[in-house]
């Protein structure tokens, strides 16, 4: 067999030091001439604005002093006797220094390529990019200017011998807010931090994040990325994979991509759109099950433990498909064979590929066999199907779920006898009982309404967490209510009150709303909890057992009551009163404590207005403030709307916005739907989610406002009152 002749290609030259800039003069006539040094000056069109290091300049000066100019300067004419240097500014500086030192005369002739002024930016960029030490800000601004002159990305890439991707990345950097670029030039930011800002082209968003991080001791690019994507979903998340990037972008979704990290996931910036697309996809998948089961529900996510709160019916056993069964047996045998023959030995690529393909196929066969097993009509008559998104982003279908209330009562002995003697009686469904009391997931009409207002699932979770935190603080300060609530919860479980929608988690571990503790920093509720915790009698916890128990037992009753209330407060679960299955006990607890949510939490740009759609904000403004104010907001950008709504719905709205007393009485007490505790006697409960009209016999708006401004909320403990000693 003839051997293929191989040749070694010579590497392309990497140094441009001795090339004449005019050797490839673009777009027009150019000529090289000797121009006196004193007729040359720096060009305003030179793209290099950040000076090179002192050491680099010193090296260049020494080189020119020793060997002279080896590369011409590139200039354009300002007049017959004045020329601006577009490329070669550092060389010009060195020559001027040599003239000042008396090494060369002031009119020393300098070789210069005289070109058309319109090529100045391109030439300057070429010169500086091919040589070292040009500041990155100068580089990407030069690329941006050339794009503005009509040059294409491909043309720029070809000119400088770089990839088109690199050009695009540099252009992406050029779209960072000028204020941030200036901080980069000044050395306040690293290039990596500037790269992080390119996740979005929205300058307002960039500046908002910059203002949030600039006060930190160390600004890290990851913290910038986290803030830019805090309300976005990763494309690699279960929700992102379920919908898919193509479907999301086709629906108008904005995708945030990190062009500087090929490993980084893209982020989907429109969570409301993403969730809507996911629900639509789930609803389409649910269609085949409708009409054949008692109920069918779709959910974006379900805690897997919640499925244990259903009873179960199972499909009937049938003979497995013989072909699938034979394939399964063959694959299992082959898997064992491969493992045995390669034990401790090197595997071939083909064997490795075959081995790792077996397990996924076995799972497929198992699923296919399961799908062949039918459910009895009597089982489907009491059971339902839940479709949700699995942790891997795949559709998850749970069939045969029976709600606790649908589980048939156990047959009495005489019923069993009667059924046995009546061949026509249908078989009673056999239901495996629930194994958990976790609330059963159900369809949520309130969630549907929230969707219409642009309130995402994430925002609804934040509102639940905030409401929970406020109730916890009030419950921890009231032993009497805490004792009743805990005693009730203990009796419910100890005495077997079934699978309910409990208000408390009586395991008494802190029931935290995952990743939402930051919501509560510096809030009224948090201050309440901190003040209570400081006064708790906890020195006994430092002792060894059982001395700690004896010491705790000897505490005064008031100290025991404080500890009991505190522990009970930790057990409160998060929910909204508008949820489909609200806990009436939670609502009753909130009513007994007379929790004034409006005094503890106000909707801000960060926690609410910046996270709902524009239509909801404008509609709320129209209801509570008026058409003129709403129309003004409707003409603004989302960020400006959010800021304006924060001011309008703050406690000091009358001072900051100039509203009349009637308007302030509504805006300063307004709360999103579900935040007020049902039955609470707070003054603003009737303005939650709406703007009701004042009826005859009600307090006047002026009286309400005066009352609200002059008094601490009645539900706040005395230790938080301004009058407290």
From TrEMBL:
Pfam families: ParB_N. Residues 1-15 have a biased composition (Polar residues). Residues 420-447, 681-692 have a biased composition (Low complexity). Residues 693-710 have a biased composition (Acidic residues). Residues 33-129 form the ParB-like N-terminal domain. Residues 1-30, 411-447, 681-725 are annotated as: Disordered. It comes from the Bacteria. One of its GO terms (biological process) is chromosome segregation. GO terms for cellular component: chromosome. InterPro entries: Chromosome_partition/occlusion, ParB/Sulfiredoxin_sf, ParB_N. PANTHER family: CHROMOSOME 2-PARTITIONING PROTEIN PARB-RELATED (PTHR33375:SF7), CHROMOSOME-PARTITIONING PROTEIN PARB-RELATED (PTHR33375). This is Chromosome partitioning protein, ParB family. It comes from Thalassococcus halodurans.
């Amino acid at each position: 067999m003839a051997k293929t002749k191989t040749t070694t290609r010579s590497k392309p030259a990497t140094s441009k030091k001795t090339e004449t800039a005019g050797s490839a003069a673009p777009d027009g006539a150019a000529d090289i001439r000797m121009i006196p040094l004193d007729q040359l000056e720096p060009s305003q069109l030179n793209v290099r604005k950040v000076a090179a290091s002192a050491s680099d300049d010193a090296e260049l000066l020494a080189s020119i002093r020793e060997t002279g100019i080896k590369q011409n300067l590139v200039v354009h004419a300002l007049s017959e006797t004045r020329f601006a240097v577009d490329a070669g500014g550092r060389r010009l500086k060195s020559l001027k220094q040599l003239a000042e030192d008396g090494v060369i005369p002031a009119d020393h002739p300098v070789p210069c390529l005289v070109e058309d002024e319109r090529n100045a930016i391109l030439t300057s960029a070429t010169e500086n990019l091919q040589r070292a030490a040009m500041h990155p800000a100068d580089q990407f601004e030069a690329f941006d200017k050339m794009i503005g002159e009509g040059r294409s990305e491909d043309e720029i890439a070809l000119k400088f011998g770089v990839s088109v991707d690199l050009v695009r990345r540099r252009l992406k950097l050029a779209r960072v807010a000028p204020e941030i670029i200036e901080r980069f030039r000044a050395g306040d930011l690293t290039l990596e931090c500037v790269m992080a800002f390119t996740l979005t082209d929205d300058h307002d968003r960039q500046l908002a994040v910059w203002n949030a991080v600039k006060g930190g001791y160390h600004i890290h690019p990851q913290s910038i990325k986290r803030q830019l994507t805090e309300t976005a979903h990763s494309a690699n998340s279960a929700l992102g994979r379920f919908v898919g990037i193509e479907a999301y972008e086709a629906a108008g979704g904005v995708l945030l991509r990190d062009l500087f990290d090929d490993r980084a996931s893209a982020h989907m910036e429109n969570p409301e759109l993403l969730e809507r697309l996911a629900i639509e996809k789930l609803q389409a998948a649910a269609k085949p099950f409708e009409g054949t089961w008692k109920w069918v529900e779709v959910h974006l996510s379900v805690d897997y433990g919640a499925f244990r709160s259903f009873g179960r019916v199972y499909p009937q056993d049938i003979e497995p498909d013989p072909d699938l069964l034979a394939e399964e047996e063959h694959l299992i045998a082959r898997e064992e064979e491969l493992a045995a023959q390669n034990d401790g030995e090197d595997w071939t690529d083909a064997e490795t590929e075959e081995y790792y393909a077996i397990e996924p196929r076995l799972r497929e066969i198992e699923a296919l066999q399961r799908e062949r097993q039918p459910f009895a009509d009597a089982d489907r008559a009491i059971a339902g199907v839940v479709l949700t998104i699995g942790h891997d982003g795949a559709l998850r279908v749970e069939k045969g779920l029976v709600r606790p209330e649908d589980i048939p009562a156990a047959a009495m002995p005489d019923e069993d006898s009667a059924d046995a003697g009546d061949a026509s009686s249908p078989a009673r469904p056999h239901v495996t009982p629930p194994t958990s009391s976790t609330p059963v997931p159900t369809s949520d009409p309130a969630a549907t309404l929230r969707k219409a207002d642009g309130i995402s699932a994430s925002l609804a979770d934040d509102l639940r967490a905030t409401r929970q935190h406020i109730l916890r603080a009030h419950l921890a300060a009231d032993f009497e209510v805490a004792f009743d609530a805990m005693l009730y919860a203990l009796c419910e479980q100890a005495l077997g009150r079934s699978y309910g929608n409990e208000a408390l988690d009586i395991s008494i571990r802190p029931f935290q709303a995952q990743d939402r503790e930051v919501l509560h920093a510096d809030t009224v509720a948090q201050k309440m909890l901190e003040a209570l915790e400081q006064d708790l009698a906890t020195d006994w916890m430092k002792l060894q057992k059982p001395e700690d128990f004896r010491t705790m037992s000897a505490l005064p009753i008031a100290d025991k009551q404080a500890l009991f209330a505190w522990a009970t407060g930790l057990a409160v679960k998060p929910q909204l009163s508008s949820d489909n299955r609200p806990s009436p006990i939670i609502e009753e607890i909130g009513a007994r404590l007379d929790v004034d949510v409006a005094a503890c939490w106000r909707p801000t740009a960060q926690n609410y207005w910046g996270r709902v759609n524009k239509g909801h904000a404008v509609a709320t403004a129209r209801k509570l403030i008026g058409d003129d104010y709403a129309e003004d907001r409707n003409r603004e950008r989302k960020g400006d709307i959010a800021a304006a709504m924060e001011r309008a719905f703050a406690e000091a709205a009358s001072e900051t916005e100039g509203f009349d007393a009637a308007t302030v009485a509504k805006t300063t007490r307004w709360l999103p739907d579900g935040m007020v505790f049902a039955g609470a006697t707070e003054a603003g409960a009737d303005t939650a989610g709406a703007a009701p009209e004042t009826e005859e016999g009600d307090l006047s708006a002026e009286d309400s406002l005066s009352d609200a401004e002059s008094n601490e909320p009645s539900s706040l403990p005395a230790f938080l009152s301004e009058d407290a000693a």
